[in-house]
Amino acid sequence: MKIRNRLLLGLLGIVAVFALFGGYTYIVWESIDEDAKRMEVIYQETVVRNIERLDTTLNLALAVRNSESSLADVSAGDAAAYDQVITSFDEFDALHDELAASLAEREPIAAEEFAAIRATHDQLRRDVEALLVSNPTSTDDASAAAGDAVFDEEWMARIDAEFAAIDEGLIALELAYEEQTIEASSEFDSILLAIEERIRRIETVMLVVLGLAILLAFGLGYRTAQSISRPVEQLSEAALALEAGDYQEGALDEVVGRSDELGRFARLFQKMAEEVRARETKLRERIRALTVEIDRTRSNEQVEEIADTDFFRSLQQRARELRAQSRPTGDDST
Amino acid sequence: MTRTVSVHSFRGGTGKSNTVASLAVLVGQHGLRVGVIDTDIQSPGIHVLFGLEDTELTNCLNDFLWDRCPIEATARDVTPDAVAAAGGTIFLIPSSIDAGAIARVVREGYDIAQLHTGLRELGERLDLDMLLIDTHPGLNDETLLSIAVSDELIVVLRPDRQDFQGTDVTITVARRLEVPALSVLVNKAPTTADLDQLERDVASAYGCPVAAVLPHADEMMELGSGTVFALRFPDHPVTAALRSVADRLVADGDAGGMG
User: Fold this and answer.
1) What is the pLDDT of residues A211-233, one digit of tens each?
2) A110: confidence class by pLDDT, cuts 50, 70, 90
3) Which residues of B touch A296 (CB under 8 A)?
4) What ipTM was reported for this prediction?
5) Which of A292, A318, A320 faces B205 most closely, judged by CB atoms?
6) Which of B114, B197, B139, B64 is nearest to A302 (CA)?
7) DSSP symbol at A106
8) How many beta-carbon pairs below 8 A join chains A and B?
9) Counting C-beta atoms within 10 Å of the first and last residue's C-beta, which end of chain B has fewer, N or C?
10) DSSP per-residue letters across chain B
11) What is the mean pLDDT of chain A?
12) Most A CBs within 10 Å, among B176, B184, B254, to test the A interface
């Protein structure tokens, strides 16, 4: 495979690992998003509403307290407090209706207790009204003495019991609301924990993926570098050897078999090296031919052939004379 | 006093004539009067290097040898501008290229004594400082004579077996003729060879100095006729080597004249 393709493949692998990680993160994030929405619903529908209900319940208790104290005022002879008792009862009924409407929107909580409170309160109202109707207040009468007769023990005990029952019912209701809120918040907590757990898992997976990618990149880089640097080293060694004149045939056997660019280069190099070697051998043969070789026997024979003539001997003689003449001392001859 | 230098080679094609022509120019550039004589009567050629057309060869060495004219009448002033500028003069004594004249030399020969006289008179009458003899390859009578009357013999050879062998014969013969100075000049050495080693080998083989080892110059190929290498390529390494040979020849001539 070509080196370029190998590198591209490695890069593709790393990109694929990251893409897988991205996909995983997306899916996990979607579920976290869902949970977050669920948490919002729980918060809105349970926590916020229950706080409102608790608020209303407190107001109910307050209305009961008001009617109780006003009733006490009436029994103490304050006829004007009668209206306040009725107002408080009406207030209670209005609040109860409001809460009933709120409860009807969702599954009712402690519906029986809630209905029982209303029933008790209605009974209380009827009892109080009955009591007050049978004992019309006459501010002008000297009713202080009559008062005792009017609010007889039995009625009062009944009304007190009814007040106490309402209070008890309201406390139970409050407890029920509180319990549900606590339940909701614990569900809230568990969802939060689950989300945290998933985020932690993403972090872990991210670390693993990152480590893997780094390892992969390093491994790939190292392998590629190895698979390139070794043949390149061999090629440069071969080039140096060629320059020094001791290139060995087969020094590149490992590289020429490769199917990539280096293999092609090595094959070309090998071909070139063989040509260089052939040329060098030829050259060396030519240089060797420059060795000065002289066959003295033969040249002596040839010299004798030339020298053994009368012409040569006379030439020798004349040359000797000539040189003797041309010497500076005997210059002026002929 | 004319210093006579023979340039010889055992075989043809050694670049002998080119060497003679360059040496003549380089010696002439010392401001000297130089004669160049082509005693290669059977295959003349050096005149071409000095730009002489064949038709211009009227009086030749042949005419003198056959007693048709005095030797000085055969000399032609062929001084190139570069030599004239240095105050030097070059005279050329060509051989005839006429086929009939060459045939006559081969057939009848000539009086070798006449050549001897010619060489001696040439120096005196033209007042030459140096006479360079371009000899015929091989060792025939006129070559032996040229060698015998020379003050120095330079044997030009190419580095091959035949030349090595032939040069040994020439050197031995020259020693018998008691030539005062002997040297060999290796020409056309392959540029791939170890030239220093070759010089040492040649010097030890012949026991005489090596004038120069000239590498083969491709420029020689582009050198048309009518041109002397040393003039055409004054800065070439081959010219530089030849110049040192010429300088040495001039210096030896001065020493001889003084001593």
Assistant:
1) 988 888 888 888 888 888 888 88
2) confident
3) 168
4) 0.84
5) A292
6) B139
7) S
8) 76
9) C
10) -PEEEEEE-SSS-SSHHHHHHHHHHHHHTTT-EEEEEE--TTS--HHHHTT--GGG--S-HHHHHTTSS-GGGG-EE---HHHHHTT-EEEEEPPP--HHHHHHHHHH---HHHHHHHHHHHHHHTT-SEEEEEPPSS--HHHHHHHHT-SEEEEEE-SSHHHHHHHHHHHHHHHHTT-SEEEEEEEEE-TTS-HHHHHHHHHHHHTS-EEEEEEP-THHHH--TT--HHHH-TTSHHHHHHHHHHHHHHHHHHHHHH-
11) 82
12) B176
Task: Give the CA-trace dihedral at A63, A64, A67, A68, to 10 degrees.
Answer: -150
**Which two three-digit tokens encode residue A177?**
């609301």
Q: Do A306 and B169 touch (CB under 8 A)?
A: yes
Residues of chain A found within 8 Å of residue B160, distances taken between Cβ atoms: 289
Q: Do B164 and A292 touch (CB under 8 A)?
A: yes
CA-based nearest distance A251→chain B, Å: 27
Tokens of A68: 């109780």
- Note the pTM of the prediction, 2 decimals: 0.55
- pLDDT band (50, 70, 90) for residue B9: very high
More reliable by pLDDT, B210 or A43: B210
Scanning the structure block, which residue is given the tokens 């924990």? A193
Q: How far apart are CA A229 and CA A239, in angstroms?
A: 15
